[in-house]
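Appendix B. One record, verbatim.
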Amino acid sequence: MKTDFINNMTHEFKTPVATIMIASEALKDPEIVEDKNRISRLAGIIYDENVRLGNHIERVLSIARLEKKELKLEQSEVDVNDVVAAVVDSMELQLQKRNAAINLNLNAGKSIIYGDELHLSNVIYNLVDNANKYSGEIPKINISTRNTGKHLIIEVADEGIGMTKDQTKRIFDQFYRVPTGNLHDVKGFGLGLNYVQDIINQMGGTIKVHSEKDKGTVFEISLPLNHN
């Protein structure tokens, strides 16, 4: 699993580096330098890819910190409905690229929890990103929030490739990635769900997964409501 992780990680680092290299070389071309629009576009590409690299590095470092239990979570009031809406909004381009149909049902009347907004955003991002990547032609993703007793439930459901019982058992292991068969474009470190589980646990919550091969997957997060 570690070898898989290193291979995936290397791939994720190589892609932005290669893109930055091509864009930088283009900026040395006297003909291109004459064209203001192209300079602006290339600068934009370099900037975006640098951000992506920075995010990859942060993710690897945060896993290292999680392993040592050094990751300190902020504690502040967070409106989960707002966080979910903001994350989906920020993913608009990725989701559009695959023509994903997103359905939001943010029905939790009590949506304030006490926790870490940044890490909760990462958790939602990971789950929606997985739902998008592990779906067939046109991803259909339902994201909902609701209340049960003293808890807030977040559900991310897809109609994608799903998992077997055995894969479901291993899904939260570090570096484990579901074999995707013919979905060759699925990239990632396989860190996502291990990190997701750690963050949810540290926020006093739980995460469960229900999945059926070729039918889809549902992740259900339960977080304690803010009683302060």
